[in-house]
Specification:
Length: 267
Amino acid sequence: MFRNNYDNDAITFSPQGRIFQIEYASEAVKQGSATVGLCSKTHVVLVALKRNAEDLSSYQKKIISVDTHLGLSLAGLASDARVLSNFMKRQAIASKMTYDRPIPVERIVEEIGDRAQSNTQNYSNRPYGVGLMVAGVDDTGPHLFEFQPSGMTQEMVACAIGARSQMARTYLERNLESFADCKREELVTHGLKALKESLNQDKELTVENASVGVVGVAETESGKKKLEAFRLYDGEEMGPLLERALAGEGTKQEGEGEAQGESMDTS
C-alpha cells in the first residue's frame, strides 16, 4: 500500500478500475482479530477472538446482539461497527413498529450494504473500515451473511474474516459438508476449532479472549418450530464450551506423542 494520485477520496477510479480507499478499508478488516461464522439447517454460530490494546485495558467487544433473532460479529474498526449496529437496531425496531414482525435477515443486510455503498458516491464520506458477519433467523430459516467495506454482501455457509483468517477458512473448507446436519453444540465446537487455527502458536483460546453468539430454531413437542433467541456467551460462560471443543485435542496430542515414542523405541 502506498500513496498515489487516486486515493484522496472514495469516489475516484484509478486507470486500472480500482478505488483505493475501499482497498485500504479492506486492509483494516484484515488487521482486525479473527471471527468465524457457521450455519446449519437449524442454527447459526458466531465465534470471535477478542483483543486488548494493552495489559491494563479490557478486551474489545466483538459480538453484538441486534435483536432477539439477529446478531453480528466484527473485524476491523469497532467504532464503525458500533455505528452500523446502531443503524441495524433502529431498522429492526422500525420493522416491528410498522409491520409488527421481525425484520428479515436479508433485508437488513441489504440496507447496511446500501449504506456502505453510498459512501463510495459522496466525496465527503469514507468507506466503513469494518467487516461484519451477520447471523439471524427468519421465516425462511437460519442465515449467515458477510458484509464488506465496499458494500458487497453475500450469504455464506461458513466464513472467516480478520487477521490470519485463512487458516480458519482452511478448516471450514475441510469440514464444510458436515455443517448442515450439525447440532447446536457441534456447530459451536467446529467454530472454536476453526478460530483456534487462526491463533499464533504461543497463544491459546481462553474465557477472556473468546466469545460465542448463537441463534437458531428448535422443534417443540408438538412439532412446531420455536425461535431460540440470540445468546451471547462471554467470560466464565465460555469455560464449558472451550472444554468441550478442545478436550479431544489434548488426548490426540498425547496419542501422537506415545506413538512417536514407540516408533523411536523400535528403531
